[in-house]
Every structure is written in C-alpha cells, then in structure tokens.
Amino acid sequence: MNSKVNFTFNGTQYSGEEGQSVAAALLNSGVTSLRSTRFNGEPRTIFCGIGICFDCVVKIDGVANQRACLIAITEGSQIESSQ
Amino acid sequence: MIAIIGAGPAGLAAARAIALAGFAVTVIDAAQKPGGQYWRHRSTVDGYKATRSEKYFSTVMGNPLVTYINGAQVWSATRSEKSIYINYLQSGVEKRLTCTDLILTTGAYDRSLPFTGWDKPGSMTPGAAQALLKGHGVIAGKSIVISGTGPFLLPVAVGLAAGGAKVEGVFEANSPLRWLRSPLALLLNPEKALELLYYLKQFRRYSIPVRFGKAVTEFTGHSVRISDVNSDMTIKKTNVREIDCNVIATGWGFVPDITLGGILGCNQVVDKDGTVVFSVDNNQRSSIENIWIAGEATGIGGSDLALAEGHIAGLSVIGKRIPFSLNFSKFRKRLFARALQVSYPVNPGWKKWLNRQTLICRCEEVSCGQILDSVEELKAEDARTSKLFTRAGMGLCQGRICSRNVAEIIGESKELRVSDSERIAYSNRPIAAPISLGTLGDGISSK
After folding, report:
1. Cβ–Cβ of B124/A48 closer than 8 Å?
2. B positions 97-116 inside 8 Å of A (CB)
3. Which CATH superfamily is domain B354-416 in?
4. Taking the model in full, what pTM does it have?
5. Residue B312 and residue B74: Cα distance in Å, rounded?
6. pLDDT attached to residue B44
7. pLDDT per residue over B69-84, tens digit each?
8. C-alpha angle B226/B230/B235, rounded to 5°?
9. Class of domain B2-109+255-322
10. B21-30 per-position pLDDT tens digit
11. Maximum distance among all Cα pairs of chain A, rounded to whole angstroms
12. How much is the ipTM here?
C-alpha cells in the first residue's frame, strides 16, 4: 500500500496515494472539473491523460500551466484552477 | 555515445540490444517509470502477455551499461556534423545531453474525433482511461462506454471492467469482416488469434457487450447517444440508443509523435492512414546518417512491431548484422500493421456528425461553424490560413489534438484532398514541449 499524500485544491483539503498524478488523485476524490475555459467558462478536466492535450492544466504552488495528468502529488502542495 | 529518446517497448528493445552487446547507452524519457504509454505496470490487472515486458525491464534497468534519465522532458534537439545535442528539462532544471548516435522512439498518442459533447468532463481518450487505471490506480468512472475504432479498445475495456468499472459497451465503428481483406497477414501472425481469444474470453467473463458499425455521436455529460454508421463513417441512422454513463472513452487510432525527428530534419512521408511518419531504411536508419527511428513514429503498428524495430535499430547502431529471423519478424508484424490500417480505417464521413456548434479546437474553443466561416467568408484555403483567422490549433496543445481534423474539415468543405505537404506542415511544430522564453533563449545561445 502506498502512503497517503495530502494537498489542497482551490483551498479544500484532499489526499491521494504517493505517486499518483494530481489529475488522478482529484478524479478519485470526485472532483469533476479542474478549471473553466477562458471564453465560454466550460468545465474541463483530464482528456488525453498523457500530457498531449493540455486540457487539465492547473497552477501548482504558484507555477501556472502545469499538466495535472503528468505531475505527481506532493505533500502540502497547493493546487489552484488556472484562469 | 549512443542515446535513445523514449523508454517504451521500442526504446527498451534498442537499449537491450546495445547493452547485451557490451556497449554503453543513455536512455532519456519523459515519464518517471520506464515502459512508455503501453507498458504500465502498477496495476495488478495487466492484460495479455503483460509479463513479457519484464524481460526488457530486467535486462535494461539496473544494467551498468545503461544510463537511465527519467522525468526528462526533451523540448528540442540540434545537430552539428558529428554530434546531436538534446535539450531537456528535468524537475524544472535545464540540461543538455550530447551524443554521436541517436535512436528516436517517441511513440504515439490517441487520435480524437470531435462530436457533440466531447469537451465535457467525462469524455476522454481510451489512453487516458488506461493511464489512469494502470499508471495511477484510478478507475475513470463507475459506468463507462467505449467507442471509436481499433484493437486498442479491447484491452482498455477489459482493464476497466477488471478494475471494477461497469463497461456498458464497446461500440466499434468498423465491421470485423474487413479482416477478410488481409488473409496473408492473419496467416503469418497466428499468435494474434490467441490474443483475440483471450479478449473474447474476458469480454464474456465481464459481460461486456460489443457492437459493430456503431459510434457514439453525442455525450450529454451523463449519457451517450449511439448512431449506426456506414463503412464510410457517415450516419446510417442517428440516435438509435441512449446509454447512461459518466465516462465516454473514444479513440480513433493513433497519431505518431514526430516532433523531435522533425526538428532534427529527418525525412517524413504520409502513411496510408494519413498519419505523418518517418521514412527509414531496412535497418531503421533515418535520412540522417546518425539518427535511427523505431516504433510508432515510423508507422503505427503496436508494441510487437515496435519491439522488433527497436531491436533492429539497436543492432544497427553498433554495426551488428541483423539476423534473418528478426527481419522476418519485422516483416510479418509490419504486414499485420498494414492489415490493421485496412481493417480499422477512419473514413471521411465522420464530418457529417458535426454541426456548427460542435467544438473542434478544445484549447481555443473554436467551433466547426467558425472554421467553415473562415473558409466561406474569409477565403481560408488551408488549415494554416484558417488558424490565423480562428486561432484553431494555436492553443497550448499546438494543434496536436485538432490540426488534422481542421485540415480535413476544410478539405471536405472545399472538396479538395488534403495534400501530403499540408499534412506534413500541420504535423510538425518547432518546439517539442512548452518552455519558458528564458529557457528557449538559453537553449539557442548555448548552441
């Protein structure tokens, strides 16, 4: 069993397994939208799952445009929806 | 110094051949773990012949002749007369690797076709569902519908069902009778029949319904609408069924990732399935003398073919003769890959599913209507001009998802065939991964 990793998404506390991507951990926690689109404000989350489509981009610890499907969760990291 | 970019089946087979012959090799890969997109090995549910990958992991990883650089995003490469310089980012730090010989095994990603609702959360590629399951131990949804075309839909469906999801059905657009057109490929690849039997058994075990000549043409967010499709992919009968589900995974074959070889100037051609691939010789050598290319980037063919090609590339780099048995193995697997193209074509009628509101470019939120208007009213003649008017393909993904679809939509509206040069133009991009301007500047100035 992998150890538990705690992080926040838009200020709410979540946890996932060590090694899981941000997108996987949030999807597993029931989060169905990682951001809203720029023009139409539509919800978006994981689509290609392997870093090609950039639909799942989020801000991680202040760094914008990080692909949530590629970046592994780390203890205490603060994740926010990209604007 | 020999370097390999990519640690999927082709890259690992090349590294294995080189290391077993007593030569040093450096393998550089974007992922944290080796195996690429196909060999993911976290889950207990690994599918058909999953243990085969162990032979490659055990002889490559931990071999003192193999230097393994993981988590490395290669964003560019340049070359001088004798050397190739690979620029990459590892944990945000810029690094550079210099080699004399390079093997590119950059793989492929799912091809997506647009349909109403494909941009809603819950719609994803089969590759995403597979990556979530095998890479991260997460089942994409409770109830899942799988649609599109190609044999990859089968392992994804079985994996998800074994993981505990309710797979409501697999809707394959093409007819299985198309296989009758490739008797020689079937005859020379008898082990594929065993693989098919394995999947049929699993489908029965998990009670997964499979239907042919059907495609998902709309996703509402909590259900999908299925249409009967003709062999040219036009709709025969619309909305024949509605199925409740929270995930729809659609995939229409694969797109080879050719960016790095394109940046290095390796010759490309348009394959029969319309994908842009590298032209290589019998030993997998590209048009550039010290660059070899193996796996999906030379033509979509699956992991079996990638293993043979990687093995050949590895032997060729170190000047070894390629045994006849290996060449024959590649030949018959290449024949099977051709049969896959014949059996699972993505015929042009899919554009009839679209309406003016259907989103085509996900990044810049460009609809089908906007693209058609750029042709009708603004006189765009190709994808590049349309892109300048509509921004389709100018977002973060740099057109990786939509550019082929945009070109084909424009081609059809003008009743023109998309030319090979246009296919090559929209398939290439100057930088392989997004980087900061500072990194770009440093990368250029330290040439």
Report:
1. yes
2. 109-110, 112
3. BFD-like [2Fe-2S]-binding domain (1.10.10.1100)
4. 0.94
5. 24
6. 40
7. 999 999 999 999 999 9
8. 50
9. alpha beta
10. 999 999 999 9
11. 42
12. 0.96
